[in-house]
Amino acid sequence: MNSGIPFVPLDVALDDKFALIEAEFGLKGFAVIVKIFQKIYGFQGYYCEWTNDVALLFAKDNCINSNAVSEIVKAAIKRGIFNSRLFEEYQILTSHGIQKRYLKAAERKARIELRKEYLLVKVDLNKKNVAILSENVTETDENVTDLSVNKTKQNKIKLNETNMPSAVVPQNLIDFYQENISRNYLTPRELDNIKFWLDKVDEDVILWAMQQAVDYKKPSWKYIEGILKNHFNAGRTTLVAVKDAQRTYKVQKDAPKGVYDDSFDYDELEKIMQEKG
């Protein structure tokens, strides 16, 4: 069954992850990533298998050296263009952004089949055209179908002795938060907070906000959410928009203090959060 879509928009202004691929590999690197996007969206729609054989055929079909393709894909995974955990566990290429764009573009399809263990985004289970394919559970109701497939590997994350579904929150966000914010502890409430913001802004914006909290020595979810809320209320939901605003603040000497000033502190952020309410 071909689950692909015929068209998906490509942002005019791409973020730093793509710029770094182009800087390292030239236009060939950019072209390979776009070709992989075409492969993903055109067939399965939200992921593609990426084994050695698939990579070899991809290189042959596109007249590109297979070693070059391998290095470009490796760099793209390292920089977060594709999700590293799902590549390591299932040999597939996908990302939060790819899946979000696919679900939006496929809204009117008669049937959308999604592998539960591959998901990085929330799915509206009330839609009657959505079928969730699970590894080892068969569950049917009037809205959602879980179909069992022949795999036994369990895909769970241990969080303070509580198994939470890793398919909802990208692994890189969980890892960064536990290693830098919560010191190996992530509460269900914090996980729900991250899920909430994944519906509002891009995944890399959340990761950037977490890094900002670490850089300003304010490692707490409250501080991270203040940054996210400030940008979201200003209409900035992509990392490109956030960094453009960052550059604007830095060049405007008389601009009001914001999250980009070296003198900015936690109390000021709390004030901004209350004003934006």
Short description:
The protein is of the alpha/beta class and about 280 residues long. The protein has 12 helices and 8 strands.
List keywords for this structure.
277 residues, 12 helices, two-stranded antiparallel ribbon, single chain
> What does the oligomeric state look like here?
single chain
Question: What is the mean predicted local confidence, pLDDT?
Answer: 78
Tell me the Rg in angstroms: 20 Å
Helix-strand string: HHEHHHEHEEEEEEHHHHHH
Helix content: 40-55%
End-to-end C-alpha gap = 47 Å
Order of strands across the main sheet: 3-4-6-5
Which residues form runs of ≥5 with pLDDT under 50?
136-167, 260-266
Count the beta strands: 8
Strand % is: 5-15%
Q: Specify the overall morphology.
A: globular
* Computed structural class: alpha/beta
Number of H- or I-type helical stretches = 12
3D structure, described in words:
The structure is a single chain. The protein has 277 residues and is α/β, with parallel strands linked by helices. The protein has 12 helices and 8 strands. It has helices at 16-25, 27-42, 52-61, 66-78, 84-90, 96-105, 171-180, 188-198, 203-215, 221-233, 239-251, 266-276, and strands spanning 48-49, 92-93, 112-115, 130-134, 139-140, 145-148, 156-159, 162-165. The chain has a 4-stranded mixed beta sheet with strand order 3-4-6-5, with no helix packed on it. It has a two-stranded antiparallel sheet with strand order 1-2. The protein has a two-stranded antiparallel sheet with strand order 7-8. Helix 7 runs parallel beside helix 9 (203-215). The protein is globular. The chain starts with 15 loop residues before the first helix and ends with a helix. Residues 136-167 and 260-266 have low confidence and may be disordered.
